[in-house]
Amino acid sequence: MASVAExxxxxxxxxxxxxxxxxxxxxxxxxxxxxxxxxxxxxxxFVAVASLVARLGRSPSxxxxxxxxxxxxxxxxxxxxxxxxxxxxDRFDRRKVMIGADIGRGxxxxxxxxxxELWLIFVVSxxxxxxxxxxxxxxxxxxxxxxxxxxxxxxxxxxxxTTYGSLPLGAIVFTALAGIATAFGAGSYLGERPEALAxxxxxxxxFFSARMIWGLDLRQGPVAGRRAAPPGHExxxxxxxxxxxxxxxxxxxxxxxxxxxxxxxxxGILVAFAGAGSVxxxxxxxxxxxxxxxxxxxxxxxxxxxxxxxxxxxxxxxxLQSRLDxxxxxxxxxxxxxxxxxxxxxxxxxxxxxxLVLPGGAGAGLAWVTGYTxxxxxxxxRLRGRTFATLNVTVRMALFLSLLVFPAxxxxxxxxxxxxxxxxxxxxxxxxxxxxxxxxxxxxxxxx
Length: 448
What we know:
Layout: H1 4-12, H2 19-24, H3 26-57, H4 60-91, H5 94-111, H6 118-142, H7 152-165, H8 167-182, H9 189-192, H10 196-214, H11 242-258, H12 260-290, H13 298-321, H14 326-345, H15 350-378, H16 381-413, E1 416-420, E2 423-427, H17 429-447
């Protein structure tokens, strides 16, 4: 039985923001399983498609090109349709948009085992990514309408941990299903297509997600003062035209440019991802050739530490946001990640580097959750879809460019050494490029 103090806190909206309260709240308790299962399926599908195109490539060189082709097919929609996806999310019923995207992705993944040519896999991957472009911002824009304002940080933490924390489990599930398919023998359908079971499971996860979202009303929720849906959101709203779409896109970019807080948050998140991209792109070389203590396993050690640190930062976000100003916390968390990256790049052993990756990852996870929470709190429902769609696209572009730029910078700098007090100190291109990534993070934190 609840105490009098708990009942008063519930009425005032000051009740403690526990994860248990969030996960048992009826609207979010339907959305969260949909996110969990579809995220797991998406990672299973990601590994399965990579394996599928490598098999269809039929040679090491073609397999590498085929994998690159899939990555490009998943990237191109962001370049071509990213801004338009935000217009769709803001114009139409988000529940219907998400259900349609889930059903479409499920059907596309279910068809992949029957496709005999690489170019067909590329086309289907392109279409899958187009549907993902509208599903993700629709979900991000709807969360403030499903949970109380005080639970936004917890909701974002759960969403991000669910999305990225299911990657290892997805790889394990694919490996198990591929092993089952291979056990049927070389002459059987599944034996010759070991990715089929994983792809069909992936399709089933999207159908499950659609079924869970079917029972939600993403336009209504407990947020006090919720804005009315804009024209075009309601059933029978204004039809989407090219002129209207272009006008909406311009309005969204104008809002991002002219709103100081949103502009600052977007810039901070954007540069933070570019800095994180330096770790991902340079991590294998750093672990194998720059530090001692590990060779083949070094990058795995660094990524494990990064994942644990990010999960810890996301988990602490709600508690810290209740004690510190969110804007200050956002900037400090980026600065903390930057300082960690500077020190990591100077470490002589993989274990010392991994130890310092933990607080760096915590800063990145904390900045991510805090930035998302502040955007959801400060952007009206009418513009929220375009804001998150634009953010998703720019983040992907920043991450992609960092994967290209930082290794090129490291190669251009080369390896050098300096003598300080008679001691020879090496300055490799990888270390210097990582310091540049840290400088980018410092800039983002200072700007915030």
